[in-house]
Structures are given as structure tokens and as C-alpha cells.
Amino acid sequence: MPDERRKEVQTPPPAFGPGPAPGRGPGHRFSHPSAKPKDLRNTLRRLWKYFSSYKSMLAGVFFLIFISSIISVVSPLLIKKAIDDYIVPGKFAGLVYVIFAMVLLYVLNSVFAYLQGYGMMKISQQVVFNIRNDMFAKLQRLPVKIFDTRAHGDLMSRLTNDIDVVNNTVNASVTSIFSSTITLVGSAIVMLLISPILTACTLLVVPLMFFLTNLIAKNTRKYFSQNQKLLGKLNGIIEEDITGQKVIKVFTREEKEINKFIEINRDLTRVGTKAQILSGVIPPLMNMLNNFAFIIVAAAGGYLALKGSVSVGVIASFVQYARQFVRPLNELANQFNQLQSAFAAAERVFEIMDEEKEKENEKDAIELASIKGEVEFKNVWFSYKQGEMVLKDVSFHAKPGQTIALVGPTGAGKTTIVNLLTRFYDIDRGQILIDGIDIRKIKRESLRKSLGIVLQDTYLFSESVMENIRYGKLTATDDEVIKAAKIANAHEFIKHLPHGYKTVLTDGGADLSQGQRQLLALARAILSSPAILILDEATSNIDTRTEKHVEDAMLKLMQGRTSFVIAHRLSTIRNADLILVINNGQIVEQGTHEELLQKRGFYYNLYMSQFAVV
Ligand SMILES: Nc1ncnc2c1ncn2[C@@H]1O[C@H](COP(=O)(O)OP(=O)(O)OP(=O)(O)O)[C@@H](O)[C@H]1O
């Protein structure tokens, strides 16, 4: 595998996500206009599947929302009652009861609001906990192909940002939409019952409100869309510059990078300011329209009161209703946009969950008990992309305990042979046999357990050295780990680390040299003691002393095991029992070093060009 691809595994997560989650900023009401769900019904159905596990809790929350919305709807009636029945006629004793009832209702409302928020938060946290777990479990079951073809930053952002968006929005929006709807409908009904004329007066501002907000929204949407794009660009630069720091420094491109960043940052600020200024017009505008409604109700109410057709209490309660009516309308429009973003985010999460898993083992797949290590490729054909054959009719036979060197120019297909042996990818045609058994008939886990892989750029986890070696065999004791490290010639350098075996590695072992990382990988492989070994020899970055250690450890590891070595060292190639010379996806020659040299063919030329000087 070319180094770039291998290194991609260690790429850090994107500096920021694809953009801010909706609802985090003044412009949130028009957030992410492009983020519309493609198949809303399906997304809803799948979200419901997660929520349905908490049906009774949900029912409780909705009951509380229902009650508190009803309280909001009836409270203004108490104002009417207080004015008409007690204040105007001067019955102050009764007024005390009404005031008491109002206080009680408002307190109850607050308590219910807290309980419903608490319940909904619990449910959404639990739902997100489950989605996150399912997504991560799915990630572990995905075939290597997905990781080879999808941007890792994208996968990470789905697992973190998108799930976060779902969490935040579901938590806030679902309750808000439900309570807004009830308050809206309830208020409308009560208003109609009290005074149809004043209701009509209140509704007068609604079309104006929709017209104006839509007009502004259309323009802001354009700016927010540009804002998102520029933000994406800016994040891309940050991500690239962090990952490619060394390249930037070596080519002294800091100044150029800074200027590039400033330019985009300036555009982002310009567009962002416009978007925010425009959307900032909405709240005062709403306020103004609200006040208009208030004036219309007061004027019409005053006129009707003078005529004696409505009471002062009705006007007072109507002022309250007018406010109660316009606010949820506004809220519903906001929440609708946010929900759309959340559904789109949920869709992106489900998309990964829908990716096809690594195929199940065949029904009659067997467990490998103890294997001798005979490996045979029989007329194997393989393509990563349909129609582009990468391996063409590859056949070879490795006897137990033999060392097989894979040599050939870059891109020839050496790593691909390894990818097939491990069943990271399945072949198109032909057969791969281990001890005479087709590997498709062997359980994947069992097959992989019998293989040990040491790559040039080994992945180490951000754990202690001890745990990193133990990764090869989880049941190994500390003594066994240390013994393996000694065989791998890693003990000496580990001893000199600040905390010895307890030293915690950072960033995939970035604080170790490449040679040291390889020694740890060798110790790991020694501990797992596989029957078949796959080794990728280091080509560079290792000092001669460490290289000697690595070579020595590899030789010890290879003893008595069938070993495939992507070979770069002349000594390995010379000592191999079988050399497979691969070019352009085909085995062009095979045999021992002497046999191949005598042939004076492809290998001879390769050898002369690479090693003759040495
Ligand atoms: N995941 C992939 N998807 C598509 N094409 C791939 C993939 N991996 C490798 N290839 C292609 O398959 C061919 C063989 O690649 P392979 O990695 O096996 O070469 P290699 O001999 O190991 O090269 P190197 O010595 O440079 O690591 C190349 O043309 C490469 O571009």
C-alpha cells in the first residue's frame, strides 16, 4: 500500500465540523439551508425506532407539555375574570382567590416546564447514546473498502458533529413544536369563543408577518449558504495546515498559507456580517408587529368597550392572547428550519449505518484449529474497481515455514496480495488456500487470528507501551509482554523511556522513532505468535543500529513460520525460499535469488538497478 494511504489512518479529526450546529448563533433560524433531508419519512421512521424504546417516558413528557400548554391557554382567562368580576365591581375579597389561583398556575407551569425539559433531556441523551453506540459498532464491522474510499474526516464528523446536531435539536425542538402547536390552537379557540371580532383583529398582522420574514429570510438564506461554504473552506485550510505542518515548514510556505487564510477569513467575515445584520432585523420587526397587534386589539377593543359589546377584562386578556398567539407562530417557523437540519444530520448518520457490513461468514465456515501454514494462490484475479484488474492470474505455492519475498516496482500489487490474504478484500476469481482450505470457508476472525501483520508504519494506540504490546494477546501477563519485548530487541529502549513500560504514547506513537515503533509492532506480533506472518520492511528513516535490531527481531519472528515479506533489504531477498517478482499485477518470475539471477530477466534487471551498487 502506498504510504500516503497507510498514513491516512492517523489523520487527526477535522479542526472543526462541517459548520456550527443549528441553534448556536443569532442566525440559526436560517441555518444550513442546503441541509435538507432527502427521505424524510424513512429518517423519521428510523428515529422513531430509537425513541420508541422510551414510549412511556415520552408519553409522560408530552402529558406535562400538554398540561402546561393548557395552563398557558387558560391563564389569561383569569385576568379577564379578575378585572370583570372583581376589580370593576370592587369585590376585593374574591380578587385574592383569583390572584392565588394565578400564582398557583404559574408556579405549576414552571415546575412542569422543568420536569418536561428534564424528561426530554434524559430521553434524547439516551437516544443519542444508543445511536452513537450503534454507529461505532457498525464502524467496526465495515469492510476496509469503506475506509479506503471515504474521507476519514467525513466519517468522524458524522460520528461526532451530526450526532450532536440530532441531540441538540431533538431535545429543544420536539418539545417546543408540540407546546407551540397546542398553545397556538388552544389560544385561537379561546380567542374565538371570547370575541371573534378581536380575534380577526389579532390575525390581521399574521400575513404581514409571514410576508416580511419570508422576504428577509430569502436574502439571508443566500448569505448563510455562502457563509457555510466559506466556513467549510476555512476549516479545510486549518485541517490541512495542521496535518501538513512539516511540509509547510520545510518549503517555508507559512506566509503564503497565512495570506490564503486571511483572504478567506475576510470573505467569511464580510458574508457573515451581512447575514447576521439581515437576520438581526427579524426580532425587532417581530416585536414591532407584536405591538401593532397590541395597538389594533387595544383600539378595536376600546371602541367595542365604549359601545358596550366587550368588557375591559376581555381586552386585557386579549392583549395577553395576542402575544401568546404570535410567539408560538414565530417559534414554529424557527423550529421547522432547525428540525430540517437535524433530520439531514440524522440521515447522514443512518447512511453510514446502512453501508453494507463485511459479509457474514459462510454458513459452513470453519474455525482453524492448528495450522501448518501452507498458502496457495490459484489463478487469482482481483480488481478494486470493476473492470480494472489489479491482480491478473496470480498463482504461487508457499510451503509451511518458508519465507516468501514479494518484490516489484511501486504499484505492482504487493500490498494487494496482502489485502487478499487477510480478506480485507475478496477475490473476483480463483482460489486462495491455507492448508488446502479455501479462505472463504474459514471464519474471518479465525483466519485473521492466525495471521500476524507488521507494517512499516505501525499504528499504536494512545495507551501505555505495555498495553500496546499486549494488543497482540490480551490475556498475556506483564512478564510475557516483557519477554516478547526482549525477543523483539525493544526492551532496551523501553527501559529508557520516562516511565518504562508504563509510558503512555501520544498521537499514535508520534513521540517514538519509526524504528522504535516497528520494534513495538514486532513485539506485538511475537506475543500473538501467528502461524503466518506478513511483514513490510522499512525502507527509510531507520538508523543502521535500529535497523539491525529490527532485522534481527524479524528473523527471530519468522523462524518456523510461513512469512510473506514485502522486501526491500537485499539480505531478506537473498535468504528467501521463494521470491515472487510482481509487475503490473502479474507474477512475472518466481524462484530463488540464484535461479532468478541466472534467468537474466525482470528480476535480474531490478536487482542490477537497485542493489548492484550496494
Ligand atoms: N483501495 C484501493 N482502491 C483502488 N485502487 C487501489 C487501492 N489500493 C491499491 N490500489 C491500486 O492497485 C494497484 C496496486 O497497488 P498496491 O498497493 O498493491 O501496490 P504495491 O506493489 O504494494 O505498491 P508499493 O510498493 O508502492 O506499496 C495500484 O495501481 C493502486 O493504485
Structure at a glance:
This is ABC transporter ATP-binding protein/permease. This protein has helices at residues 3-8, 40-51, 55-87, 92-141, 144-149, 152-194, 196-203, 205-243, 245-250, 254-280, 282-307, 312-354, 414-421, 444-449, 465-470, 478-487, 491-495, 514-528, 544-558, 570-575, 593-599, 602-610; strands at residues 375-385, 388-398, 403-407, 429-434, 437-438, 451-454, 532-536, 562-566, 578-583, 586-591. It is α/β, with parallel strands linked by helices.
Written account of the structure:
The protein has 614 residues and is an alpha/beta fold. The protein has a domain of 315 residues: ABC transporter transmembrane region fold, CATH 1.20.1560.10. It is 63% helix and 10% strand. The chain contains 22 helices and ten strands. It has a six-stranded mixed beta sheet, with helices on both faces. Strands 2-1-4-5 form a four-stranded antiparallel beta sheet, with helices on one face. The two termini are 26 Å apart. The structure holds adenosine-5'-triphosphate. Adenosine-5'-triphosphate binds next to strand 1 and helix 13. Pfam families: ABC_membrane (PF00664), ABC_tran (PF00005). This is ABC transporter ATP-binding protein/permease. GO terms for molecular function: ATP binding.
